[in-house]
Design goal:
single chain; 504 residues; mainly alpha; Growth Hormone, Chain: A; two-stranded antiparallel sheet; two-stranded antiparallel ribbon; 4 strands; MFS; Major facilitator superfamily (MFS) profile domain-containing protein; transport
């Protein structure tokens, strides 16, 4: 994590920032490099460093998150409306009953996240062990090629294979972004920044829908509209991969910072088994993961099948794509707005998260219980306010990142949250049963409502009370703040560092 203090160094040491950046060892080595005493950063330097980091990281991370979101579900949902379902036989009509079976489409959505699950462990290990640019860059390049190659798939079996490997390579993106933010920003700064990059899911829902709408106008060409969608997505992802090769490993070797500005943080690349054991036994790690899994079930179900569900309201495929705009706008604006509130007002993240769950539940009920006549307004309005699931997930990510410390423990937390995200997305599409379309998919909405109501489980408030008590206990210790500044560069966990404060 970037510190608000700088170590006091000799003049000779000040001239050697590159040597400090090159050492990837443990906290003892980091302390030796960084010095044993600390002095506060001047406000001007702190603002300058923060501005430079924001300028380099945030725009590209928004784009990367948006590309990830569109690849995982939005493209598939839109492509299914424009020929992919029939071309690859993703839906099958029962000749006896006349009902349409979309289970192949459900599995095409879910298998992507099986690929992410399988890829999460090796990718997390590589990120923790090696220089980030040499892991993230090649992985994104391969991801781009696999995405573009989807245009050449001719069978539904081939699509399943392609989707698995697409998920495998893409698994590196959310894990690396959570690690980057927790390493480059202070605890106070993280809430807003985590929500900034995550808002890319909303922005690219809008941008991707606009591009899909444009491609859908193509009537005569060598490629089908859905094939153009994947080729363009692969090309844009390849450009994002070029940025990944410019990514510094930590603030210590950030080429866009001056030598003096670089000495604001240290990234430890040594995997510590003690931190893994602590993380595995830490209840809040699994609590955050459970919330993430529950929240992201809606993503797998509604995002993957959203355009198809809207089309059942009597709207054309083109109109169904346009109705993704309000949902994306709520995500894009709601995520950074809630992050800003949580940065300005201390300890309101959990309250804000619970509040954002309420319109999501209301949206489920409106879709389920309203009339689905020709061009109805109520279910479309309900579908739009489901976009509040974006702030729910964004706040969950920021809570997880801000409440653990220690490089290995942060990586474990990121991996646990990511696994839960995958499980939620795997389960979601399986809740969509095409044979219950006439009853408005009751199994889907009932399941999602139950999962979101679990966010209000009283047992979770007990965990919150424990963290409040722990913060008060640490405040009463009367510790020397100068000692806290001295150990800011040591790789200590939140439980090992008595100066660490939990945010709620």
């Amino acid at each position: 994590m970037r510190s608000n203090c700088m170590p006091t160094m000799s003049e000779e040491e000040k001239g050697r920032p590159s040597e400090a950046a090159a050492v990837p060892g443990g906290d003892e080595e980091g302390a030796e490099i960084m010095g044993t005493e600390a002095r506060p950063l001047s406000p001007d330097m702190e603002r300058r460093v923060l501005r430079k980091i924001d300028t380099f990281l945030m725009p590209a991370m928004v784009i990367g998150t948006g590309r990830s979101a569109t690849h995982s579900h939005a493209i598939l949902g839109s492509a299914a409306l424009f020929g992919m379902t029939s071309d690859l036989h993703l839906s099958v009509v029962d000749p006896v009953t006349g009902k349409t079976d979309t289970s192949r489409l459900s599995w095409a959505t879910s298998i992507f996240y099986f690929g992410q699950l399988v890829g999460s462990y090796p990718m997390t290990y590589l990120l923790q062990r090696f220089n980030m640019r040499y892991v993230l860059g090649p992985a994104v390049m391969v991801w781009a090629v696999i995405c573009a190659a989807t245009a050449g798939v001719t069978t539904w079996q081939g699509l399943l294979v392609q989707r698995f490997f697409l998920g495998f390579t893409e698994s590196i993106v959310p894990t690396s972004f959570m690690t980057i933010v927790s390493g480059y920003y202070t605890q106070r700064e993280q809430s807003l920044r985590q929500t900034w990059w995550f808002s890319g899911t909303g922005w690219f829902t809008i941008i991707g829908s606009a591009l899909n709408y444009a491609f859908a106008q193509i009537s005569s060409s060598a490629l089908r509209p859905w094939q153009y969608i994947y080729v363009l997505a692969g090309a844009l992802t390849f450009v994002f991969g070029l940025w990944c090769f410019c990514l510094p490993n930590s603030p210590l070797d950030a080429w866009f910072l001056s030598p003096e500005e670089r000495i604001t943080g240290v990234r430890n690349q040594r995997i510590k088994m003690g931190q893994i054991r602590e993380a595995a036994c830490d209840g809040k790690v699994w609590l955050v993961a459970l919330v993430m899994g529950s929240a992201y079930t809606v993503n797998g179900a509604v995002s993957g099948f959203g355009p198809l569900i809207v089309s059942t309201f009597g709207y054309s495929p083109l109109q169904s794509i346009l109705f993704q705009f309000p949902l994306g706008a709520i995500c894009a604006l709601g995520i950074p707005f809630t992050g800003y509130i949580c940065m300005r007002i201390p300890n309101v993240r959990i309250i804000t998260l619970i509040s954002c769950c309420l319109p999501v539940i209301a949206g489920y009920v409106i879709i389920w219980k309203s009339s689905w006549g020709h061009h109805p307004i109520a279910p479309v309005a309900g579908y739009s306010i489901i976009g509040f699931f974006g702030p729910v997930v964004g706040l969950t990510v920021s809570l997880g990142a801000a409440n653990v410390a220690g490089e290995t423990k942060k990586s474990f937390m990121a991996a646990a949250v990511f696994v839960a995200y995958c499980v939620g997305n795997i389960v979601g599409p399986q809740l969509v049963r095409s044979e219950t379309k006439g009853e408005h998919y009751p199994g889907l909405w009932t399941g999602l409502i139950v999962l979101y109501l679990r966010h209000h489980d009283p047992r979770r408030f007990h965990a919150v009370h424990h963290l409040v008590w722990e913060n008060k206990r640490r405040e009463q210790l009367g510790l020397d703040k100068r000692e806290g500044e001295r150990i800011a560069f040591k790789d200590l966990t939140d439980k090992e560092n008595p100066y660490f404060r939990y945010v709620l």
